[in-house]
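Cross-check.
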Amino acid sequence: MRSGICSITVLSTLIDYYGVPSDTPGMATRPPGTPRSQVEHVEAAMSEAVGEPRFLPHLVVHETEAWVLACPEVLSELVGAPKLAGRIRALTVSSGGPELVNDGPDTAPSKRLRSLVPGYRKTVDGPDAIGLTGVDAVRRQCPHADAWFHAVDERLGTIRRS
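Predicted model, tokenized:
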């Protein structure tokens, strides 16, 4: 690569907010409010700390398993548990959406999935459910994820027009 020339248009992160280290920029100064507003605060602080306009930090509210919670029917079929979809829908409705499922040590999305599906395989079942359901379904149910996908599309010039 020649000096001064770089082909990177956008560099992003995909990190579970639930496990972000306490010394991450913005963590110590999070304002009270919703999980999404706190995540946005930390992302802004990360962006400011890096100081590079191509850097687009993204923290998943609360874990990537929140995206799996947006795929109840497919996950139910994948794991062979017909009643699972209804249980997941009830959980996400009572929480206000997949991204708002509680982030406590025993109630984080991954813990909830493991309690609903004892044989749940985090690195197989979750990605399969998201892949088979499609990112558009995740975007419809997870506003913070949708904002990130939109920002990436915008920076890459790949925004889809309806």
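The longest strand covers residues 11-12. Helices lie at 35-50, 65-68, 72-78, 84-95, 109-116, 125-133, 135-141, 143-156. Passed to J.P. for a second look.
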